[in-house]
């Protein structure tokens, strides 16, 4: 009789222990999942804060760069990139009497627009050149070659490129640079792209001399 009672008590005890063990395992599983979620949310918050911090820090560099009022210059340099009206702006400035010549960076395999500009008849000189390398650095080297006896040049490009172009061209040529913004409208995705692209250009430029 005593043995039977002992077995019953033992079975009951083991059953309770098993249920308790299962409860703890389930609890630990939920606790682990909850901890992982908290870490994930925390990491996401840190990442978003970092991106926003970088965006704000670089805002005056890419979004609100220093632009200049055009003055009479020796030449107008139109930097390569999208055909967003920069070529037309450069030509209109020359037509308005700001410079006797326009330099058009032509790093394209073929562009009907640039081809027409390069062979058009104007009251001022138009010089099209293929920079080497086909980057802002190549354009800076071309400016150094063309502008050995110049003192002031108007440069036409788009907003996110202005600060870096000012830095690169300033390393290549010692004259006065006046930057004019073509005023191109950019999508949020394009802004994000140019934040990365222009920043990478700064890093790359740190290891290359003009």
Automatic annotation (TrEMBL):
Keywords, comma-separated and alphabetical: Membrane, Transmembrane, Transmembrane helix
Positions of transmembrane segments: 39-62
Record protein name field: DUF218 domain-containing protein
């Amino acid at each position: 009789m005593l043995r039977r009672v002992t077995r019953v008590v033992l079975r009951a005890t083991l059953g309770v222990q098993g249920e308790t063990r299962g409860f703890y395992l389930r609890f630990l599983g939920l606790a682990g999942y909850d901890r992982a979620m908290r870490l994930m949310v925390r990491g996401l918050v840190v990442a978003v804060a970092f991106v926003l911090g970088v965006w704000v820090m670089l805002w005056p560099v890419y979004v609100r760069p220093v632009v200049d009022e055009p003055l009479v210059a020796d030449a107008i340099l139109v930097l390569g990139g999208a055909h967003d009206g920069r070529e037309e702006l450069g030509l209109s400035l020359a037509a308005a009497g700001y410079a006797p010549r326009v330099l058009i960076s032509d790093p394209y395999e073929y562009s009907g627009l640039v081809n027409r500009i390069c062979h058009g008849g104007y009251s001022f000189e138009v010089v099209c050149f293929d920079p080497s390398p086909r980057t802002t650095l190549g354009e800076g080297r071309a400016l150094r070659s063309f502008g050995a006896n110049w003192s002031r040049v108007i440069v036409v490009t788009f907003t996110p490129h202005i600060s870096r172009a000012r830095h690169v061209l300033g390393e290549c040529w010692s004259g006065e640079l006046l930057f004019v913004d073509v005023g191109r409208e950019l999508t949020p995705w394009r802004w994000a792209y140019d934040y990365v692209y222009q920043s990478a250009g700064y890093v790359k430029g740190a290891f290359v001399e003009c």
